[in-house]
């Protein structure tokens, strides 16, 4: 007889976000492990007051710890927890996964805290690593898609090909305590969900192709509908946030899912991500069908209002589709949110004006349009990263140094000092004027709503003139938020 399967602990570090939803990436990774008889214990910083002690307690009897990290702040806490575990349980193997270790496996393994890295799609690779470690074998030779340490040497195995999302075991959402997340969100009930892998587009700032290539692989429509309906029923969900990179790659699949959700009589609402030119391919009837099936909000990546900047980052998008999409979503009752990236390489004053003019044009066509913003972060693995290094970005020399790459505060060789501060003020006013960054699920009413509308109008007026100096509205809102926190008032439920 073989060695009985021992528990595995998976840790999800904090990204310094207001959001709290079960960590979908870890639930995906857990699927083959659970199917093979392993108990999987997930520890999520979003719902743990003391993540380090929570991990140590969860490790009782475990054969491995897995730490998921994306470039940025998640690295800070991931490293801290790995260090605590290494000190308390030096014999326990620790594997790193997620976007960052997958893109830079060798640099990640220069850290003494990690014994292996999962590179690329991780479900089957992690299972094979755990099975080796569970049996007492530390050598991972032959485990495709993994890097590991043999003595002082980093050894890389052959890449693992893509595993069809339809061939993977069912995702065990039940291994997390959903009620902890609902409590964290003040009773609002939502989850993240994935119904496809990859994206066929090749925007140069995106690092997704380093894992999935430029391919798009969908879950079968019937399975998508059945799983979403079952999850909504089990957890009494208000919203399912479908985080596919591009949900509308196949229009017929999206409409098939919508029709089958209506036949099932589901009552939850859902969010999707796509491009504005994908909406152009939908008829008005198809867009209304999606709305009737529960589609509440669509996230669009526009990034810039400058055609010149869009061209430099290989974003092949006709901005006229954004204006049409804003109008059509408003008419169909679908909320539209647009992403902007400030500080893309080569962005100049005129490009910034073009972006603000685009924001204003969309806002005039759709008064409820929302914008959320970031500052360009040159992520490793993205096609634009070498260009960013050429322009002066210093490539971090260690895993820990990558923690500073945070798209909400990022400074760049071409965007720092007063220029950086001005962009931050512009972002503040977009946040006020267009519900940026946070989507308030329950809007204020009465006097609070009147104040919101007044501030929104003031912010939009400032943006049109790019008059963001002496930001008294921003200071007042920050003071109000500080006072509310001192009084112990709960923040409204938000989803970004």
If you had to describe this structure to a student in words, what would you say it looks like?
The protein has 19 helices and 17 strands. Helix 1 (24-35) packs across helix 6 (123-134) and helix 14 (319-332) packs parallel to helix 15 (349-365). The protein has helices at 24-35, 51-58, 74-88, 99-103, 105-108, 123-134, 178-184, 209-212, 221-235, 251-264, 276-280, 284-292, 307-312, 319-332, 349-365, 385-390, 417-433, 446-465, 472-487; strands at 8-12, 40-44, 64-68, 94-97, 116-118, 146-150, 153-156, 190-193, 196-197, 217-218, 239-242, 269-274, 295-303, 335-342, 370-375, 439-440, 494-495. The longest helix is centred in the C-terminal third of the chain and has 20 residues, at 446-465. 42% of the residues lie in helices and 15% in strands. It is α/β, with parallel strands linked by helices and 496 residues long. The protein is globular. The N and C termini lie far apart (49 Å). It has 2 domains: 8-136, Rossmann fold, CATH 3.40.50; 186-376 and 415-495, tm_1862 like domain (pyruvate-formate lyase- activating enzyme), CATH 3.80.30.20. The model is unreliable at 436-440 and 492-496 (pLDDT under 50). Strands 2-1-3-4-5-6-7 form a 7-stranded mixed β-sheet, with helices on both faces. Strands 8-11-12-13-14-15 form a 6-stranded parallel β-sheet. Strands 9-10 form a two-stranded antiparallel sheet.
Q: Unreliable segments (pLDDT under 50, ≥5 consecutive)?
A: 436-440, 492-496
Structural class estimated from helices and strands:
alpha/beta
Give the count of helical stretches. Answer: 19
CATH superfamily of the largest domain: tm_1862 like domain
Query: Helix fraction?
Result: 40-55%
